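FORM 7B: Structural annotation worksheet

SECTION A. Query
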Amino acid sequence: MSNRQVTSDNAFVELENVTLTYGRGDKQVQALTETSLKIGRGDFVALVGPSGCGKSTILKLVTGLLKASSGYVYVSGREVGAEPMRVGMAFQNPTLLPWKTIRDNVMLPLKIVPPFRQEFRSKRKTEFRDRVDALLKQVGLDGFGDKFPWQLSGGMMQRASLCRALIHDPQLLMLDEPFGALDQFTREELWTIMQDLWISRKPTVLLVTHDLKEAGFLANRICVMQARPGRIIDDTIVPFARPRSIEMSYAPDFVTMTQRLRELIIANRPQKEAA
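SECTION B. Predicted structure
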């Protein structure tokens, strides 16, 4: 992890005074007030905060799924959408296609995303198959490529979902609570796998989570958002060396960090929620 300051000159992702408003008139809702964020290439940033504060909205802005009401969103120095960008995404629900094998599910981005799709027909049974199988092996799914999603546990499906999000070497990896529906032991196992994947591949990652322990284990920086209208009110560098262990998350310094973040989130919840 690098602790160097991220500036506009070296930022891979940048939000500059971004606001977002949904609806019109009486139904208008301001999701984000002036929000700024800079993320360096290859960094791992977690967004935390109360429900409805706009964490997932930021993911959608960065990937171009939403357009800012005001302000600017830059990726690789250009406004988002100005040029194609390889993006990987994983959600709380693995969203695997039940009629396709795990291997074919993981291979889908290679069929769709340039420049891989131009070579898909010629390489899908050779180089691309080997690529998928190597990644499945890295996450502990060696030998499961020919299985179907319904034959796998929830944790195994989420591993496959991570593989699908990474198979096409995305420049941006968007993680929207991908471990939230899993039990604690499976979740912690997948944190270790995700850490290993990031260390070996170094995509630029933006993680949305409600789990402060997860944020501290995985991220280089943790950004705290206030309740709607959301904005970033704290940006904390995670000081612990990698690779991190689950045991480390029980250390006093780690607990002190997550407790400070928890108190900050509680203090910035809506009054009726905090009461």
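SECTION C. Observations
The beta strands are 11-22, 29-40, 44-48, 70-75, 78-79, 87-91, 172-176, 204-208, 221-225, 232-237. The longest strand covers residues 11-22.

SECTION D. Sign-off
Analyst initials: ____
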